[in-house]
Write a structure and sequence with these properties.
This protein is of the alpha/beta class. It has 3 helices and 7 strands, in the order ββαβββαβαβ.
């Protein structure tokens, strides 16, 4: 029990009172347990699966899509490489010690004229390339009509 002493000096009656703390703690623990039990954590381990039985009708599945050709801009220590998964590859070497951003812009414009509906490209810088050079390349990529740009590490390409 918790007690509070609020008086009793100089001939006055003592106003000590006892506060029953155990029922309050029990109520608090019951509330906590109720909230834990009703939480939505039970959906974390759920796996949705459908088993096809012989008597069930088959669900029409769409045919698998043909793999889309990806466009990749690699930023290397020697310059840019604009390539695709179809096998074409265009190298844009550095102009001295700086990256040739104008030539990159020209090659991206040519590529955009060949595929005007393409909006995606993956920029893949390799280790050791400075951050400012990667950002400059990303700015040119978005400015030349590829707003759905992805950034990837050069090791996974």
């Amino acid at each position: 029990m918790g007690g509070i002493s609020v008086g009793g000096h100089g001939g006055k009656k003592s106003l000590d009172s006892e506060i029953p703390l155990v029922p309050f703690i029990d109520l608090l623990l019951c509330c906590v347990m109720f909230l834990l039990v009703t939480a939505v954590w039970n959906q974390l381990a759920r796996l949705n699966a459908n088993q096809q039985s012989p008597g069930q009708p088959n669900v029409d599945t769409p045919p698998p899509q043909t793999p889309q050709i990806k466009l990749i801009l690699q930023v290397t220590s020697t310059g840019f490489v604009l390539a695709s998964t179809a096998g074409d590859r265009t190298e844009i070497p550095k102009a001295g010690t700086t990256f040739d951003l104008e030539e990159l812009r020209n090659k991206l414009q040519e590529r955009h004229r060949m595929e005007p509906n393409r909006r995606d490209i993956t920029v893949a810088p390799e280790d050791g390339v400075q951050y400012k050079d990667v950002i400059a390349a990303m700015d040119i990529v978005v400015g030349e009509g590829y707003p759905d740009m992805n950034l990837s590490d050069g090791a996974s390409m």
